[in-house]
């Protein structure tokens, strides 16, 4: 069992589908507090090696990384599909969880899956699409949806590096409730991947104490890392007061 630091609250970052932890690099490079960029399982292996993984397998792999990290109190920051994983991960870290930030994230109701968060037509056809075509969208869909406000070079890198996930990450249900901790939803107002109406539904499921908006597409950690970092800094200030009774040293509020 690692010896936890009691001095600082750390950020645990969960990326969305097809991405890797390094997607957060520009956000965390100037942070003055601990950060863990969690990786999904079998990222350096073939798709066949992870094809049969369950959502539980993903969460077990991520929790091991958090357990081995020497920080006790944590804030989970989850993007997109990472919202489902974050809720499941948080349920096993209740004594350590100081807050959750959902960044354009999918937040199902208790007993739901990623598919359950989609509008009805997509909810019906998506299982067929996943089974037949797999979990990597066509390049055109990635460029117009996931990467709509990125530069051509940035979009090309996302497309080329996209890693297909196991189907069960999308279809497995989570039987956990949203935890009773400070929560923030970061709404992405130019998002072509997760519509504003769908984000509003996620906000309703999440019941955060606060909603902050960024005028970006689905990947604000690339298109506006400074803006996202500022939002996280302010949230940390609020959480720090709850945990320690005094403001974080970098607090502006």
Task: Give a concise summary.
The chain contains eleven helices and six strands. The protein is α/β, with parallel strands linked by helices and 253 residues long. The relative contact order is 0.17.
> What's the total helix number?
11
**What is CATH's topology name?**
Rossmann fold
CATH superfamily: Alpha/Beta hydrolase fold, catalytic domain
First CA to last CA: what distance?
36 Å
Largest beta-sheet details? 6 strands, parallel
- Largest sheet, order of strands side by side? 2-1-3-4-5-6
Gross geometry:
globular
Task: Please indicate the count of domains.
Answer: 1
Strand content: 5-15%
Which class best fits the helix and strand makeup? alpha/beta
Q: From N to C, what is the helix and strand string?
A: EHEHHEHEHHHHEHEHH
Radius of gyration: 17 Å
> What is the CATH level 1 assignment?
Alpha Beta
Number of E-type strands: 6
Unreliable stretches: 1-5, 246-253
Q: Quick check: average pLDDT?
A: 91
The CATH architecture:
3-Layer(aba) Sandwich
Helix content: 40-55%
Oligomerization category of the chains in this entry: single chain
């Amino acid at each position: 069992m690692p010896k936890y630091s009691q001095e600082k609250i750390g950020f645990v970052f969960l990326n969305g589908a097809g991405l890797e932890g390094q997607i957060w690099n520009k956000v965390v490079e100037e942070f003055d507090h601990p950060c863990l960029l969690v990786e999904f399982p079998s990222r350096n292996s073939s798709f066949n090696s992870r094809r049969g993984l369950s959502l539980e397998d993903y969460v077990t792999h991520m929790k091991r990384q958090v357990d081995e990290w020497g920080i006790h109190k944590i804030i989970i920051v989850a993007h997109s599909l990472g919202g489902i994983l974050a809720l499941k991960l948080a349920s096993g870290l209740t004594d350590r969880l100081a807050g959750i930030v959902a960044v354009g994230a999918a937040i199902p109701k208790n007993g739901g899956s990623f598919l359950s968060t989609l509008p009805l037509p997509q909810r019906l056809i998506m299982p067929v699409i996943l089974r037949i075509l797999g979990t990597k969208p066509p390049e055109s869909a990635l460029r117009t949806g996931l990467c709509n406000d990125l530069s051509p070079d940035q979009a090309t890198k996302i497309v080329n590096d996209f890693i297909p996930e196991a189907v069960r990450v999308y279809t497995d249900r989570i039987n956990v409730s949203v935890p009773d901790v400070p929560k923030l939803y970061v709404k992405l107002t130019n998002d072509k991947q997760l519509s504003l109406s769908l984000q509003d539904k996620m906000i309703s499921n999440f019941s955060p104490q606060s909603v902050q908006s960024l005028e970006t597409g689905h990947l604000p950690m690339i298109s506006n890392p400074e803006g996202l970092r500022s939002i996280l800094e302010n949230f940390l200030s609020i959480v720090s007061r709850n945990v320690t009774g005094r403001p974080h040293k970098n607090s502006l509020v």
